[in-house]
Amino acid sequence: MRKILFALIAIFAANISLVHASEYESLSSVERQIVHVKINADGSSEEIEELTILIKSQQAVESRSQADISFSSDHQTVEVLEAYTILPDGQKIKVADNAIRTVEDDLASGATMFSDLKHKIIIFPNVKVGAKVYYKVKTIEHTPTYPNHYYYSTHFSPHVQYDHVEYTLTYPKSMPMRVKDRGVPGVKTETADSITYKFTFKQPNIKLSEPVQVSTTDFAPAFYFSTFKDYLEYGQAFEDRAKDTMKVTKQVKQLAEEITQGITDRKAQARALYNWVSMEIRYVAIYMGNGGVVPHKADDIIRNRYGDCKDKNTLLIALLKAKGIEASSAVINSGSAYSLPELPIFRPFNHVITYLPEWDLYVDTTQELAPFGELGDHLVDKTVLLTGLNKIGKTPKLSPDNNRIITHSSIKIMPNGEMKGASHTTYKGNREINARYRFEGHVSTSAAKMVSDQLFKFRETGTGKFKPTDVYNLNKPFELFTEFNLDPNTNFPGPGAMTVPVGLAPGNITAISHNKPKEKFYFPFECTAGYTEETTVIEFPKNTKLTRVPKSTHHTQPGSEYIATYKKVGNNKLEVKRSLKLEKKSMVCQPEELKLWQTLYQAIKQDMRSQIFYQ
C-alpha cells in the first residue's frame, strides 16, 4: 500500500561517505517529510506527502535530480501538487509542467511481466550541492486491494538520515483499526467520530548497509496500521479471493490424468504434477488490477501456458485436487525478511508457494530447476500463511542433513609439474538447486569462460571441461563431473612445497579462506547451514618422496565443526579429506555471532596455508 517514494532506502544507502572508522555521513538527507493520510471506512484513502531532500555532495546531485513515485494505476491516482528546487540562496525554481511525466513501468514491456505499475517522474532543475528538492504529492487509493480492509506501514531505514519526519493518520472510529509501533511511539487524539495518530521521527546518525544483512523490515523503527485482527484473517481474505480459481474442471481433471498416467504411488503422482507445472508453465509476473493478489483460473493458465507464482500455485493445487491430494497456498516472503510485523500487513509477503500436508512438504513451482520438495535458500526458515488450512506454518531450515555437497577429486602430477585431474560432486537440497542453475546452458560459448573463471578463482591456470548431468531432469539427482589439466604451480623435480590444488572441483571450503569476514556487524544477518566434504587424492611422480605433510586438524565451536586429515597412501600418494559442518538454530544470526565465523575462518585459513613438502 505504501508507495516507494524517491527510492529512499536503496538510494540513500548508496549515498554515504566515510568520515572515520565508526562514523558515516550521508551525501543527502531527508530534511523534512510531512505525510497526512485520511482513511475511509471502505478502506480507500487519501495521502498528501511533502518531501524535502537536502543535497550534501556532488555525488548525490545526479541521483537526486529526479524523483520517481510508483503507483498502481488500477488502484491509485497520483497528482503532483507542487515541485521545485530550492537553491542555496533560498531562490525557488519551479519544476516545469513538461518535466512531470507519467511513464509505464520499464518491466511492463518485457516478456516476463505484465504490470499496471506506473511512475510519476519529476525532473528537478538546477540541482547542485547545497540545494534542496521538494515535492508535494497527493495519492488517492480508490480501490483497496481487500475491500473494507486497510493496512499501512512505514519503516525508517538505519541507512538514511532523517532530520524531521511527521506522519498523521486519521480514520473513522467505526473502523476496527489496530495500531502498533516499534521504536516510533505515536500520539493519539480523538473526536466524536474519528481517531488520529501522529508519529514523529528523526535519525541524525546512520550506519552502512552490511553484507547479507536481513531486511530492515525485520528490525528498523516502524509503525503499523491494520484492520485485520490477525494473520489468519488476512490469510482467509487471500484465500476467499483465490479459491474459485482452483476448481477441478474437466480440463484440469484430464490434464492430471495425462500427467500421472501409469503412476499409482500418491507421492510420485504429486512429484509428476509438480515437475509438469514447474517446467511447462512459463513464469510471467502479472500485476494487473487484482492480479497482484488474485490468480487466474486454472483453465486459463493451462491454455496460456504462463503465469506468476499465484497462477502456478493455483494450477498445481487444482491438479493435486484432481488426484485427491490435499494442498494449500503458502504465502511467504522470498527476500531477506524473516519475521512478520506484529500486525497483519501486505508487506513483507511477496510470493506464494504450495504446501502438501500429507508429507509436510513445501514446493515452489517458480523455481523450474528445484527438485520436488526442495526450496531455495531465500525461502527456508520462513513463517508462512497456509491460507487453505487457515493456519500459520514455517518452512524447514537448512541443516547438515538436507543441504550437502560432497566432492571426490583425483590429481596426478606429471614429472614436469603439470597436473591432470578429475572430480565428481554430488549435491543435496539448496546446493543442488544452485548447481543446476549454475550449469544451465553451460554447453555454449560461456563454457570456456566458466572454466577460466573457476581456475582464476583459485589462482590456477590450465584447461578443462565441466560435465554436468541433465539439469532439467528433476527425477534424478544432479551430479557434476570434471576433467582438467593444470599448469605447474611449483617446481618439479624437487625439492619443493605446494598447497592442495582445486582444479575444476567446486572448492567451497577453499573459497571460504579467500573471503575474510567483516570486523563488525551492527544488524542481524542471514546465515547458513549444511555439510561440505572434499576429498582429494594427489599422486606424485614415482621418483618423488613426500618429506612432510600437514598436520591434521579438528576445530569445533558452537554451530560448526571443521576437520582436515592428511594421510599418505603408499610411497607417492596423499589423501586429503576436509569437511565443514554448519548447524544453526535459525537462518538469522545476531551481530555477536560474527565472532564465531571469524574464528572458524582463521582455522580454515591456517589449514589452507599448510604445504606439502617433497623432494
Number of strands: 38
Instruction: Indicate the CATH topology of the largest domain.
Output: Immunoglobulin-like
In which order are the strands of the major sheet placed?
A: 7-6-11-4-3-13-16-15
CATH top level of the largest domain is Mainly Beta
Shape: globular
For the CA atoms, what is the radius of gyration? 29 Å
The major pleated sheet works out as: 8 strands, mixed
Strand percent estimate: 35-45%
Low-confidence stretches: 1-22, 107-113
Q: Which structural class fits the helix and strand makeup? A: alpha+beta
Mean pLDDT: 91
Specify the helix fraction band. 10-25%
Q: Any idea what the CATH architecture of the largest domain is?
A: Sandwich
Give an overview in words.
With 615 residues, the chain is α+β, with helices and mostly antiparallel strands. The chain folds into 3 domains: 8-227, Immunoglobulin-like (Sandwich), CATH 2.60.40; 234-394, C8orf32 fold, CATH 3.10.620; 404-614, Sandwich (Jelly Rolls). The chain has 11 helices and 38 strands. The strands form 10 sheets. An 8-stranded mixed sheet has the order 7-6-11-4-3-13-16-15. Strands 28-29-27-26-32-36-35-34 form an 8-stranded mixed sheet. Strands 23-22-21-24-25 form a 5-stranded antiparallel sheet, covered by helices on one side. Strand 34 and strand 35 (560-569) form a beta hairpin.
Keywords:
single chain; 615 residues; alpha+beta; Immunoglobulin-like; C8orf32 fold; Jelly Rolls; 3 domains; eight-stranded mixed beta sheet; 38% strand; globular
Summarize the topology:
Layout: H1 8-13, E1 16-20, E2 23-26, E3 28-39, E4 45-55, H2 58-64, E5 66-72, E6 76-86, E7 92-94, E8 100-104, E9 113-115, E10 117-123, E11 132-141, E12 151-155, E13 162-172, E14 178-182, E15 186-190, E16 194-203, E17 222-226, H3 231-242, H4 250-259, H5 266-280, E18 282-283, E19 285-287, H6 298-304, E20 306-307, H7 309-322, E21 328-332, E22 351-356, E23 361-363, E24 383-386, E25 391-394, E26 404-413, E27 419-428, H8 430-438, H9 447-457, E28 462-468, E29 479-486, E30 496-498, H10 508-513, E31 525-526, E32 530-539, E33 546-548, E34 553-557, E35 560-569, E36 573-582, E37 588-589, H11 594-608, E38 612-614
Parallel strand pairs: 3-13, 9-19, 18-20, 26-32
Antiparallel strand pairs: 1-2, 3-4, 4-11, 5-10, 6-7, 6-11, 8-10, 12-17, 13-16, 14-17, 15-16, 21-22, 21-24, 22-23, 24-25, 26-27, 27-29, 28-29, 30-38, 31-37, 32-36, 33-38, 34-35, 35-36
